[in-house]
Amino acid sequence: MIRAYRCAGVHFFSIRKTVRQNLLLPFFFSLVLTIVGFVFLPANAECSSEGKSKSDGSVTPLVDEKACNAELIDRLLTVIEKDIVPLTQEGVKTGNRIFGAAIIRKDDHSLVMAGTHHKDSPLYHGEVYTIKKLYETMKRPAPDECIFITTHESCAMCLAAIAWSGFDNIFYLFSYEDFSGFYKTPYNTEMLEEIFRVKNGNYRKKNSFWTSYNIIDLINKCSGPTKEGFLKRVEKLKTQYVEMTEVYKKSENGSTHP
Ligand SMILES: [Zn+2]
What we know:
The protein is α/β, with parallel strands linked by helices. The protein contains 8 helices and 5 strands. A 5-stranded mixed beta sheet has the order 2-1-3-4-5, with helices on both faces.
């Protein structure tokens, strides 16, 4: 009798196991896939429409690098002077680093967002923090309608973050070499070499995701008083960045974090 019950129990269990394997698990798996689809697909659809990864090499140059793009250079410098530097001057007092970024529209060059480094997270470099702030705003232009400005040549993480976000250009003021004189961080070129085998910070400045422009190189394509005026503004900015670096070094974070 007991054996019969046991057999019946085993049989019942095997039926349940069979049902579980053949019906319940696929059902459960389908349910999970459906939920995942509902939750994540709209977000992905939004990302694919806003952040176009350009694998077809279709990035068109924003400027003629052989000409003097005076109007654009003036706007880029003005955004750094008026929108990024004041934020940074406040930020360094509380231990945030000097690196800043801004996003302006391609069509009318109006400011969309400006930001600087934030010490709250090791990932909050000026570029990433600015992108984060951009995506916290409900109404924003698509990345490929924007110009991405950085005060300093971006690190490996930020170069990738800008590509992942769908911006097709980067305009930076100080190159790795320029700011190594007043802000010592080996991480930029070291990480590029150690992780990606890119020597001397020599990554591809024209690639299928974005084109990267050095603002000082663009200035050097101008001449006469226009060029002189721009270079004076760059010198003033450099002085301000040296001063901000000193303030940062004296902050609580400055002595421990490069
Ligand atoms: Zn960075």
